[in-house]
Amino acid sequence: MNLRTLLLGVSSAALLCGFANAETLTIATVNNGDMIRMQGLTDDFAAKNPDIQLEWVTLEENVLRERVTTDIATKGGQYDIVTIGNYEVPIWAKQGWLVALDGLGDDYDVDDLLPAIRGGLSVDGKLYAAPFYGESAMIMYRKDLFEKAGLTMPDSPTWEFIGEAARKITDRSSDISGMCLRGKAGWGENMAFLTALNNSFGGRWFDEKWQPQFDQPEWKTSLQFYVDLMKDAGPQGASSNGFNENLTLFQQGKCGMWIDATVAASFVSNPKDSTVADKVGYAIFPDTGNGNHGHWLWSWNLAVPASSTKAEAAQKFIAWATSKGYTELVASKEGWANVPPGTRTSLYKNADYEKAAPFAAPTLAAMDAADITKPSVKPVPYTGGQFVAIPEFQGLGTTVGQLFSAVLAGQSSVDDALAQAQTAAVREMTRAGYIK
């Protein structure tokens, strides 16, 4: 055997050994556009980390939440990285279910994370999840339809104006609904919007003594407003529509207005996907004149379950996917308008981003307006904008979401749904010990 043959044999053996020792990370994520885009860009990560392989489990939002919650609570160990919200992070960290992210690397620049986002992902000063994108909620509207109807969007629109405008720009003969809103049942689907709506009407989930408030006038007023608006100006089958369904409708030119997560702005303004990309305007979430603009603040984040045995490799991937470098990678492939928003201060000081993204300033203004420590006009014992930051909210919010979705589908009345929601909430809060 000559030296060349020997060296080739050693190299082949080393290569085979490398593949044999490669770690496979199983990543559970939501089927939103930014996450789908991330999966398409992971060749960059693979080139830098040839000893780490990736396996994806991509799920619809409600299904993702159910499976990840079950797995992490039972320490099932199915996933090495999970995509979770700022609702779960502090609750799960306190339960010991998440790994503190202290291995993101010296160049990660954790101090560049927006303070409100970082604060929601930290417990006792330790970061337990890294934000992939952050959001508030705002109005996305068709400027051409407003102009045609002789309407001008105010700087701070009220719900009264929005209701009148939605009805005015509805054109059933052209298959244009004046308003698209979430109707699909789920604590993070229709109840995200309806909780923010109720906040903006001055309502709340619980009073200072944790007594449920579905029997109070604010819930009656806000839910009735929503149901009437969707009946008059919403699309058919609205009770089945969540974020992705409404996104598709808006991109197809079938929505005059859509009030939802600010992250949608890059998709509705992308001419590759949206037929109305050059016609979209943006405005802050409506109020009733009380200054409460829904106080929606959310982030989709990557975290490592405590049950994973691959925390070191998992943090390498998380650092890659939530870094400034990843933002620049997306910009080089898809343009600055399509980078994940709402996580880093530096992005909103980037002249290229400001130039490419007309929604950048409205997004930051919406996020700055959100105060999850004071979600309602009235005092409350909880934090959270479009959710209530207690463990019981996941189950209770979904139950109430089902009741309210049934109203939208014409299967129940507003009064009956609110009465059932009050009963369910009192029962759950009593069982959990909040109500003595």
Structure in words:
The protein has helices spanning 3-21, 33-40, 43-48, 61-73, 88-94, 115-120, 143-148, 159-169, 190-200, 217-233, 243-251, 265-268, 311-321, 324-334, 351-356, 360-369, 393-408, 414-431, and strands spanning 23-30, 52-59, 81-85, 122-123, 126-127, 130-135, 137-142, 257-261, 280-284, 298-303. By secondary structure, the protein is of the alpha+beta class. Mean pLDDT is 94; it is low at 1-19. The chain is globular. The strands form three sheets. It has a five-stranded mixed β-sheet. A three-stranded antiparallel β-sheet has the order 8-7-9. A two-stranded antiparallel sheet has the order 4-5. The longest helix is centred in the N-terminal third of the chain and has 19 residues, at 3-21. A hairpin with a 2-residue loop joins strand 4 (122-123) and strand 5 (126-127). Helix 8 (159-169) runs parallel beside helix 10 (217-233) and helix 17 runs antiparallel to helix 18. The chain folds into two domains: 3-134 and 298-356, Periplasmic binding protein-like II (D-Maltodextrin-Binding Protein, domain 2, 3-Layer(aba) Sandwich), CATH 3.40.190.10; 137-296 and 370-431, D-Maltodextrin-Binding Protein, domain 2, CATH 3.40.190.10.
Low-confidence segments, given as residue ranges, are 1-19
Tell me the number of strands: 10
CATH class value of the largest domain: Alpha Beta
CATH homologous superfamily label of the largest domain: Periplasmic binding protein-like II
What is the mean predicted local confidence, pLDDT?
Answer: 94
CATH architecture descriptor text of the largest domain: 3-Layer(aba) Sandwich
Largest sheet geometry: 5 strands, mixed
What is the strand arrangement across the widest sheet?
A: 2-1-3-10-6
Instruction: Write down the Rg.
Output: 23 Å
Strand content bin: 5-15%
Compute the number of structural domains: 2
